[in-house]
């Protein structure tokens, strides 16, 4: 959902109040956090059925986070709908033309639509000042550990590789033959952990975040819901949209967010980083790593 600054404020409040909610109320909170678009168009009974609780549990949850009732709680989401999504008529016509080409054309259109929508929804819910605060913390740290497993392992390593062109404090984990908890065993409040996992959440990532917090590390969490355990534990939490017609979660918005975060880190860095990046690439040219046409 675009234009959701108000409803995102409600979602953030709901996430912050998570530990104070009853187990039944947490069921409602989880459904709302994972399906915010449904709230503005659903009755209290429909939300209750979807969350598999009684309607009065939905009302109690709303009151517990500071609203008079469900209607009051739902209003910010209804307002977001009334504002409407951004209009992209040219894109819409293009996608419709693709769909007419046949079954694979329809799949192609669905994949493109989901990728664009994921980018839009991700950055609509992230404030520039939150990215800046996370970037400044990362730049000011002694070491940065970037953790991803499964599909997010390559995302974490790509981020670390790009960062290494100008900085030396970035480390992708888990290392070969190691575990994430082993890799941060001697980390402390001077260090940062960037953790990435989407539903179903990987236990080794959740456990590493818990250990990191116990050791005083600051945590940047990247996940697909405010209900995610690593988002709720993070000092800086960023929610990415990962919907896709395929069976695997999309990494498009995760990669885009990591690239944006790195750009903020570089912007926060000292001027010497420019010299480092230039020297890095000059050396690669001198060693013949890049192909150059004989001309």
From TrEMBL:
One Pfam family, short name: SIS
User: What are the protein's UniProt keywords?
Assistant: DNA-binding, Transcription, Transcription regulation
The answer, when asked if Coiled coil is one of the entry's keywords, is: no
PROSITE patterns, A to Z: HTH_RPIR, SIS
Q: Which SUPFAM superfamilies match?
A: Homeodomain-like (SSF46689), SIS domain (SSF53697)
Q: Which GO terms describe its molecular function?
A: carbohydrate derivative binding; DNA binding; DNA-binding transcription factor activity
Q: List residues of the SIS domain.
A: 134-279
Q: Which InterPro entries match?
A: Homeodomain-like_sf (IPR009057), HTH_RpiR (IPR000281), RpiR-like (IPR047640), RpiR-like_SIS (IPR035472), SIS_dom (IPR001347), SIS_dom_sf (IPR046348), WH-like_DNA-bd_sf (IPR036388)
Q: Which residues form the HTH rpiR-type domain?
A: 8-84
Q: Which CDD domains match?
A: SIS_RpiR
In terms of superkingdom, the source organism counts as: Bacteria
Q: Which GO terms describe its biological process?
A: carbohydrate derivative metabolic process
PANTHER family in the record, alphabetically? GLUCOKINASE, RPIR-FAMILY TRANSCRIPTIONAL REGULATOR
Q: What is the protein name stated in its UniProt record? A: Transcriptional regulator, RpiR family
Species of origin = Shimia gijangensis
């Amino acid at each position: 959902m675009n234009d959701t600054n108000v409803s995102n404020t409600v979602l953030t409040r709901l996430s912050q109040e998570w530990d104070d909610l009853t187990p039944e109320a947490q069921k409602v909170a989880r459904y709302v956090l994972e399906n915010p678009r449904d709230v503005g168009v659903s009755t209290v009974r429909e939300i209750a059925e979807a969350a598999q609780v009684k309607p009065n549990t939905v009302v109690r949850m709303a009151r517990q986070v500071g609203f008079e009732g469900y209607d009051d709680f739902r209003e910010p989401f209804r307002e977001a709908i009334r504002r409407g999504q951004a209009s992209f008529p040219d894109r819409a016509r293009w996608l419709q033309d693709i769909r007419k080409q046949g079954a694979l054309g329809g799949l192609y259109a669905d994949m493109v639509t989901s990728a664009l929508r994921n980018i839009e929804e991700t950055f609509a819910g992230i404030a520039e000042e939150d990215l800046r605060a996370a970037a400044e913390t990362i730049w000011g740290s002694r070491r940065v550990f970037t953790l991803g497993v499964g599909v997010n392992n390559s995302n974490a390593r790509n981020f670390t590789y790009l960062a290494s062109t100008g900085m030396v404090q970035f480390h992708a984990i888990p290392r070969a033959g190691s575990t994430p908890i082993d890799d941060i065993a001697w980390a402390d409040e001077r260090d940062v952990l960037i953790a990435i996992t989407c539903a179903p959440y990987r236990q080794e990532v959740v456990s590493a975040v818990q250990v990191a917090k116990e050791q005083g590390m600051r945590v940047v969490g990247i996940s697909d819901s405010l209900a995610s355990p690593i988002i709720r534990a993070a000092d800086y939490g960023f929610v990415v949209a990962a919907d896709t017609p395929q069976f695997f979660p999309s990494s498009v918005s995760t990669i885009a967010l990591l690239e944006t975060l790195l750009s903020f880190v570089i912007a926060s860095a000292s001027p010497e980083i420019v010299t480092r990046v230039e020297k890095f690439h000059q050396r690669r040219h001198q060693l013949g790593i890049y192909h150059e046409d004989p001309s």
